[in-house]
Amino acid sequence: MMTKVMRSKGVAIAALLALVVLAGVGCKKKIADPFPASGAVTGWDKGEKTQSFNAANLYEYIDGGAEQYISAGVVGVSTSDYKFQGSLEATVDVYTMKATGGAKTIFDADPPTIDSKSVPLGDAARLYGQSVVFRKGPTLVRITAFEAAPGEGDALLALAHGVEGKLQD
Which value, in Å, is the radius of gyration of the alpha carbons in the chain? Predict the structure, then answer.
C-alpha cells in the first residue's frame, strides 16, 4: 500500500515539476531585434540581409580583430547594412557581450581622437568622422559609413538612436 502512495506522490511531483519547467520556458525574456526597419528612422532603409556570428566564428567577420572581442567576452555579433536617402551606405554592428564590462572594455580600447566627440547615447558614445560607437549595458554598437557625405554625422546619430531604442535595458 505504501508503495502505491509513494508512487502516486512521485508521479504528482514529476507532473508538478514538468509544469513548473514549462511555465518557466514561456517566461524567458525574448531578445529584441536591434535593427530598425526601413523607414523607422527617417531617411534610412535597412538592407534585406542580417548576418550573425558567434565567438567561435567571429574571425570570419572580423579578420584579425576577433581575439580582442573574444577576450572581452563577446557572445556574438549581428550586422546589417543601411542606406540613407538612397546614397550614404552604412553598416550597423551590434555586439552582445557576456557582461557590461566587456562592452566597456571594447569601447575604451578606441580612445577619443581630436576629430571625435562624446554624444549623449547609451551609457557612453563617441561620434567620429564617419562612424558612431556606443555601449549600452552588455551591448556595443558600431555604425560605420563607407563614404563621407554632407550631414553624415547627424544621419548616423539618428540611426544610432533608432538602434538604441530597440535594445533591451
Answer: 22
The residues pairing with 77 across neighbouring beta strands, listed in sequence order, are: 53, 95
| Same domain, residue pair 142 and 86 | yes
Contact 79, 49 (CB under 8 A): no
Shared domain for 108 and 51, answered yes or no, is yes
Backbone angle region of 97, left / alpha / beta, with phi > 0 → left and psi within -120 to 50 → alpha? beta
Asked if residues 159 and 143 have their Cβ atoms less than 8 Å apart, the reply is yes
DSSP 104-117: HHHHHHS---TT-E
> How many structural domains comprise the chain?
2
Here the cell at position 23 is 511555465
Q: Which residues span the domain enclosing 89?
A: 31-166
pLDDT digits (tens, 9 = 90+) for 68-124: 999 999 999 999 999 999 889 999 999 999 999 999 999 999 989 988 999 999 999
Full-model pTM: 0.80
- 16 with 62, same domain: the answer is no
